[in-house]
Every structure is written in structure tokens, then in C-alpha cells.
Amino acid sequence: MKFKAPFITFEGGEGSGKSTQIQLLQTFLNQKGKDVLLTKEPGGTPLGVHLRHILVEGSTDKMDAKTEALLFFADRRAHLQNKIWPALKSGQWVLSDRYADSTMAYQYYAYNRRLFKTDIERLYRFVAGNFEPDLTLILDIEPSIGLKRSFAKAEQMEIKETRFENHVLEWHQKLREGYIKIAQNNPKRCVLLNANQTVEDLASDIQKVVLERLL
Ligand code: TYD
């Protein structure tokens, strides 16, 4: 599939600052005259909103690993079909807060490989074919710092979406190492960025990467 505009994904552990940075990149691209669609997973479509409630609320062990992976991929399929692909076809840049690397990092690496990597890859091909992001920005942060930010935000905004945050620190450490491996395994597509710096400095790193690679 060839599209008229790029697809950029934002990835990272809890509290890595994705949602702030994705908005700043949108503003930057708008200033360059680009039409930009901001979206997220899970929950980028009306169907996905239902799936999101099931996936991010409640107890960490409320479903088994395969059920969880299938629900994330169901969300992804609806997202591609109903939102991402139509936008790219119309020439809009699409920025997504999380995409398929989240499944590899969370459901595979962080959960200590309780699914086969090849099964996750096969499910990906099933829902997306050969389609891949043009660029993936992985915001890397030490989990103890990220979790502090994330819980503070959840409390302040009275958000119940802490199903994944509730894992122990070791689990988040594996998640972080997983993202680092994903970046190493996909050097053309992924860029690992230090998220433990000021919002402005990280935004400027992101803009540099986008300028070099896509503008
Ligand atoms: P998100 O809204 O990005 O949460 P946060 O702002 O806390 O980073 O994502 C919701 C949660 O879903 C997050 O804890 C990561 C998890 N997730 C997976 O486990 N697998 C996936 O494939 C996706 C897309 C998200």
C-alpha cells in the first residue's frame, strides 16, 4: 500500500510524555502547512472506545494473554480500516499515540514472553498486511520516573485506566528493555529518544528527526 502522507507512531512506557509530544508535533507540522490527524490506540474509533474500557480498566489478570492480544488487534484493525487508511489516502498525516509496537512491548516483552513472538507478528500481518509506520518515535524513560508521572496524572484527572500501571516495577523494566530491543531490531523505522529531559528539548529532538526523515 502506498499513501500520499506519512504515518508516525509514538511509543513508550507509562508516563513517557507521548500525549504532550504528539500534540506539539501536530502544531509543528500544522505550521509547516500539513494537515494532521491525531489518533490513539486503544480507542481511536467508536468501536475501539468500547474495547479500550475493557482493556485498560480493572484487574491486571481479568483475561488471559491471547484474549488480551486479540482485543488489541481488533481495536487496531478497526482503527486502520475506519480511520488511519482513509486519512492517509486523503493526504492527511496521521500521528498515533501507540500502535503495534505496544503489543510487542507490553504483551510479549513485559509479560515475559507468555505469547510467541511469531503469533504476534502473524496477527499483525492478518490485520495490517504489509503496512507499517513510516516512522516510530520511542520515548525512553526510567520506569520509576515515568510511573510517578503517570499515577500523579491518573489521580489528578480521576482516571481509572491503571490496569497496566499496576504491574510491579520489574515488569516495567522489562517493558523498557523490550522497547529498546524493538528499536534495535527496526533501525530504519524506529528512533529511540531520551524522554527524561524538558518538554521543549524532547520536542526539539522529535522535530529534528521528522525534518531529517520526512520533510
Ligand atoms: P495509553 O492510553 O497510551 O496509556 P498511557 O497514557 O498510560 O501510556 O495506553 C493504554 C494502555 O494500554 C497502556 O497502559 C498500554 C496498553 N497497551 C497494551 O498493553 N498493548 C497495546 O497494543 C496497546 C496499544 C496499549
Characterize the structure shown.
There is one protein chain. The chain has 215 residues and is of the alpha/beta class. Helices cover 56% and strands 13% of the residues. It contains 8 helices and 5 strands. The chain has helices at residues 18-31, 46-56, 65-89, 100-110, 117-128, 143-156, 169-185, 199-214; strands at residues 7-12, 36-40, 93-97, 135-140, 190-194. It has a 5-stranded parallel sheet with strand order 2-3-1-4-5, with helices on both faces. α3 packs parallel to α5 (117-128). It starts with 6 loop residues before the first strand and ends with a helix. Thymidine-5'-diphosphate binds next to α4.
Short descriptors:
binds thymidine-5'-diphosphate, 5-stranded parallel β-sheet, 215 residues, 13% strand, alpha/beta
**Cofactors and ligands:** thymidine-5'-diphosphate
Assign an overall shape: globular
Range of strand content: 5-15%
Alpha-beta content class: alpha/beta
Spatially, the strands of the biggest sheet line up as 2-3-1-4-5
Fold blueprint:
Blueprint: E1 7-12, H1 18-31, E2 36-40, H2 46-56, H3 65-89, E3 93-97, H4 100-110, H5 117-128, E4 135-140, H6 143-156, H7 169-185, E5 190-194, H8 199-214
Parallel strand pairs: 1-3, 1-4, 2-3, 4-5
Question: Short description, anyone?
Answer:
With about 220 residues, the protein is of the alpha/beta class. The chain has helices spanning about 20-30, 45-55, 65-90, 100-110, 115-130, 145-155, 170-185, 200-215, and strands spanning about 5-10, 35-40, 95, 135-140, 190-195.
